[in-house]
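Q: what sequence does this backbone want?
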């Protein structure tokens, strides 16, 4: 055993956490007062002469408190608080508030006593602040309020928090209301009071299942500190995760302002909680703007920050795991895989390989890479809790899976296949690809040059012909012969003055009409089309035809 471990074992007891918190708080209080009084003149001595008996009574009572004898300690401290020595009375009132707070671990009726002790401490400090020192009084009040109403620095409003209970939040609000209004010259105490009240109001609405944004709309504008900015960001994220609503316009401004603060404050930049919030807010912006290139890095920053915070298992951690794997899969599809690393080989994910979330994500990833759409559908069903928050990523992944399946597994293996058969092959679970969506997918592949195999559509029979023999270069009208141009015009029905207009016709009716007109023109060796029809641009006709087919 190392010396450090031995020292920790020596210092800790059954109530080690309580003793450590008390020792730290009390030493801070004494240090602040001694530092201030050693520098001042008028505030150096409180009224009256300090009594050794009063001082001894105070420390004996404090010893009782450290032995968890809170009832005896409170009785002894009440005697010190009733003395005519403001300094020792003020210190005794602080210890009384702490005693009732620690006693509350074992008694349910302590809340009124804690509230009364805090009010007495505030009133005594305000009455004697000129003698005790305003700075000392304010710092003591700040430390006491921190102890009685601790800020929640480990949980996010939008994440699971089973240890936070609604009765405790309501008690904290009663404590904060009891000391309101805070004197305006106590700026640090005022800022702390506003932040803690806003935080507890938000948590109260969160635990009631209501919309936290109502608190921001109804409460007065809080000071723009890093803590209040993080609270506001959590409310926006909570609404986004709960209702899948796009963030409001103010969301991007909050993210930019918090980013600005983090760049200029080393203390803020070293807070994992703040960096996790900022990174996840940037993930939301990336998803809305479809900036998949930076999405993977932001999800990875979230996972690293959660690891620093010690978040071992939560919905939020699993959500970021899912987002990171999805972003990595999208990067794989985009061709940025020359120097890629298997996400499941990373240490932070590899140690979780036996957890259900990682097993499901690995099934999703492997099914996507192997173009196994039935297995992909099973993995998607297991990840249903995250599909609302990450809807843009899941939708994009399914589109890319179908696109890759079409051009990598269907087109190379078939020379002719019905559209209905392609629709069946591209099904992902119960999600069936519509005929219009399939035609759109194929046309987009042709226009974007992502179609690996040339194809020809037969929309009269709903067949697709794949093969390089269907690759036809697009030529400008000036490069074509007169015969090919006339044949081209006949295909579109431009040589018939009574051609049926495109608008209002179904795709099948239009193709039948054009076929009939072409056959008639070929059999009768019709004359050259009128000037009005010759003046028409074939490109415009093709555009109208394509629009009609895609809208069918």
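A:
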């Amino acid at each position: 055993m190392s010396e450090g471990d031995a020292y920790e074992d020596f210092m800790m007891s059954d109530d080690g956490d309580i003793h450590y918190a008390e020792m730290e708080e009390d030493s801070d209080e004494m240090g602040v007062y001694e530092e201030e009084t050693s520098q001042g003149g008028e505030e150096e001595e409180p009224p009256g002469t300090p009594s050794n008996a009063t001082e001894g009574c105070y420390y004996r009572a404090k010893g009782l408190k450290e032995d968890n004898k809170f009832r005896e300690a409170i009785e002894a401290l009440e005697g010190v608080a009733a003395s005519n020595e403001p300094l020792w009375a003020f210190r005794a009132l602080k210890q009384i508030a702490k005693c009732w707070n620690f006693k509350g671990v074992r008694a349910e009726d302590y809340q009124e006593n804690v509230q009364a002790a805090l009010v007495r401490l505030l009133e005594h400090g305000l009455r004697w602040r000129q003698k005790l020192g305003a700075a000392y009084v304010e710092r003591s009040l700040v430390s006491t309020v921190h102890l009685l109403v601790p800020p929640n620095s480990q949980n996010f409003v939008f994440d699971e928090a089973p240890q936070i209970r609604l009765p405790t939040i309501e008690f904290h609000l009663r404590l904060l209301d009891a000391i309101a209004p805070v004197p305006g010259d106590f700026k640090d105490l005022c800022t702390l009071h506003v932040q803690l009240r806003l935080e507890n109001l938000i948590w109260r609405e969160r635990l009631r299942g209501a919309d936290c944004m109502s608190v921001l709309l109804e409460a007065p504008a809080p000071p723009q500190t890093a803590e209040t900015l993080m609270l506001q960001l959590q409310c926006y994220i909570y609404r986004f995760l709960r209702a899948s609503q796009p963030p409001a316009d103010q969301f991007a401004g909050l993210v930019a302002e918090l980013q600005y603060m983090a760049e200029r404050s080393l203390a803020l930049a070293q807070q994992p909680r703040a960096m996790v919030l900022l990174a996840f807010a940037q993930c939301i912006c990336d998803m809305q703007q479809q900036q998949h290139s930076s999405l993977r890095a932001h999800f990875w920053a979230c996972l690293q920050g959660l690891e620093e915070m010690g978040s071992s298992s939560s919905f939020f951690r699993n959500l970021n795991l899912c987002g990171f794997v999805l972003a990595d899969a999208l990067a794989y599809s985009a061709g940025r895989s020359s120097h890629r690393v298997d996400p499941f080989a990373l240490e932070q994910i590899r140690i979780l390989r036996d957890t259900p979330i990682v097993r499901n994500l690995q099934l999703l990833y492997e099914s996507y890479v192997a173009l196994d759409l039935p297995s992909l559908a099973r993995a998607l069903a297991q990840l249903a809790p995250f599909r609302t928050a990450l809807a843009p990523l899941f939708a994009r992944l399914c589109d890319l899976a179908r696109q890759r399946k079409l051009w990598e597994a269907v087109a190379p293996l078939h020379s002719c296949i019905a559209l209905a058969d392609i629709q069946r092959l591209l099904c992902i679970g119960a999600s069936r690809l519509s005929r219009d969506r399939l035609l759109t997918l194929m046309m987009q592949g042709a226009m974007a040059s992502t179609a690996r195999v040339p194809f020809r559509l037969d929309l009269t029979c709903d067949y697709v012909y794949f093969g390089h023999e269907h690759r036809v270069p697009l030529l400008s009208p000036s490069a074509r012969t007169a015969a090919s141009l006339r044949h081209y015009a006949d295909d579109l029905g431009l040589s018939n003055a009574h051609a049926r207009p495109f608008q209002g016709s179904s795709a099948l009716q239009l193709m039948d009409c054009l076929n009939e007109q072409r056959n008639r023109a070929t059999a009768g060796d019709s004359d050259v089309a009128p000037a009005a029809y010759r003046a028409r641009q074939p490109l415009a006709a093709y555009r109208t035809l394509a629009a009609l087919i895609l809208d069918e």
